Amino acid sequence: MTGSVSTAREGPLAFVTLAHPGKLNAMSRAMWRGLRAAFVALQASDARCVVVRGEGGAFCAGGDISEYPDFRFEEASLRDFHETDVWGGLRALLDCDVPVVAQIEGACMGAGMEIASACDIRIAGASARFGAPIARLGFPMAPREAQLVAQATGALTAREMLLEAAVLDAPLMLARGFLSRVVQDADVAAQALASAQRIAALAPQAARANKQALRRIHEPNWPPAPAGIGEAATDLIAGAYRYAAGAEHREGVTAFIEKRKPVF
Amino acid sequence: MTGSVSTAREGPLAFVTLAHPGKLNAMSRAMWRGLRAAFVALQASDARCVVVRGEGGAFCAGGDISEYPDFRFEEASLRDFHETDVWGGLRALLDCDVPVVAQIEGACMGAGMEIASACDIRIAGASARFGAPIARLGFPMAPREAQLVAQATGALTAREMLLEAAVLDAPLMLARGFLSRVVQDADVAAQALASAQRIAALAPQAARANKQALRRIHEPNWPPAPAGIGEAATDLIAGAYRYAAGAEHREGVTAFIEKRKPVF
Amino acid sequence: MTGSVSTAREGPLAFVTLAHPGKLNAMSRAMWRGLRAAFVALQASDARCVVVRGEGGAFCAGGDISEYPDFRFEEASLRDFHETDVWGGLRALLDCDVPVVAQIEGACMGAGMEIASACDIRIAGASARFGAPIARLGFPMAPREAQLVAQATGALTAREMLLEAAVLDAPLMLARGFLSRVVQDADVAAQALASAQRIAALAPQAARANKQALRRIHEPNWPPAPAGIGEAATDLIAGAYRYAAGAEHREGVTAFIEKRKPVF
Hints:
The structure is a homotrimer. The first copy, chain A, is α/β, with parallel strands linked by helices. In chain A, 40% of the residues lie in helices and 16% in strands.
């Protein structure tokens, strides 16, 4: 058993579930590949919102350390793990134009922080805990992953997590601007669902275009990832107004003027 | 009546007032052009601080949707609206080297968020409300505008506003780092004025140079806006020390050493 | 007496002390050069964590204004001061791969804000005060310095400090995300030491690699600083996985699997 990443659909919503029983959903290589496959499929789907969650009361406690001796101690295989498996999964999540809500219960550590950092909305339970104490494991966070986390948490929090191996609680992560909402533990799933339903009732093409624009703020000017990982460079401004004559745009504006509720 | 943007001077201060009666100062095309004209003129003026405010208890509730059927449903005219009218106004505000205080009362939505995001200091009343729920209108925020807002609010807040159509209150926007101060509704104008007076008593060329330096942090690496919109590329470091022999610099340092109050 | 920057070692820890008696440790030119020398040496040392602190209950109250008439009123010498002396010191601090904890007591103003902004972890006493009211002195913050501060404080706080000459207290700087922790004044040194000890017990090469990755997020795309100031451009991804076969990496992962405490 090396864990799994599965996708379920309920109408316009998709639920991506990280599952690795007995390991607080620690990400195995197979799970990173599963994460990539899940989000490549979702990007091509008609889903209007995705909820990412963990099974059994944890979000994700990190990487599956039991696999590490197989590949970590040789540079080429280590690079392949981070640049292809891990970044392949995270990049597919980042490149997904469908809005993504993170439903965060319990441990959100290491790989869990990376996955949560790539989501749009983050809703956590009051007892959730956040960190990336891999300095205890003797290795750094890979550069792309460290920047993803730092851009989501702010540089100060990332430095506390990586240099002090600090573990932060949910109220502090709310104050640091990483979390959208902190709710009672028993309400996390319901609140994540409510957020997803709100999003799904809104204009789907508009959401996709907003995600495309916002994604560009934080693009580091780096060598490209291995072939096939990451979206093609496109001219964001050139395509930005092609929606003009679209049905969704016309419906929204017209409904407002006619003082009725739009149907997207 | 399509609303107006007017400028008044009181000594070293300028007051730019958004006015669109009955529409909570929603921005019409004429108002975006007026905003641009106002800030192009202020940049060339001897004003030492600008207060941007709305008439009648609201800052700005968004765009003037009644105009949208005239131009939104055709790509070229939609592009011209966003890239020339809207971005022309916002870019003139961003390019203004004179410090700008946003006096935010009531609704600060959509276009209002964009205008507030381009100001330096943001002072809001306790009952002010913030958002950009245009996903209800079936269209995305234009890319330059979305990045402006996200850089001012943080990516998380921008995603809540654009993807969830969330409306956030003033205390939350203070906690998110968007607002400088939240004061009682009745005190917003007085507190914005006090901030402007403090700024106006300080060295004006220093303020301009500080704004030039800070502006560069967030310059996206994008295709240039239409001709005439946006400052020329200049070498910030090359010009950074030309103030050395200036009267303002000499007065400030000399006054400190002589233990007297400087007069700028 | 023009002040001093001295370094003391205690096992894996280094303590860099800013001292300018009677001037709340205001930075003289000699001190900026001393800061650079200290961090160039620390980068080449086996120190695992550095604490930066001020002598006598203040962190650093700014620049040594008594020196300013000697060089500030001529462009070439002013440029040389900021680009070589000040940026030389700050850049050496930023380029130091060893984690740096700022122990902030009392005044943290101007040059003090710049030095604190270049540290990784910031721990302040409840009565510490923060600002950069140089607009009272009639001059702007130099561009590289302004961007350093703004990236650490957020743009809003930097604009308040530079345009309003605002002075902010420690609880507000905690809320703004600049400070890691605010503690009782009497506990600042003990808490900074505790942070440094935690960091020093963790994997030192991992810390260095994490700092290299995080540093790149905020590199402005600017003309290079004068020769000798600032690290050489390197390909971060190319070197990111060379640690694979290293002892530290193997020890950390192996210790975890063997359920024992790693020794780095």
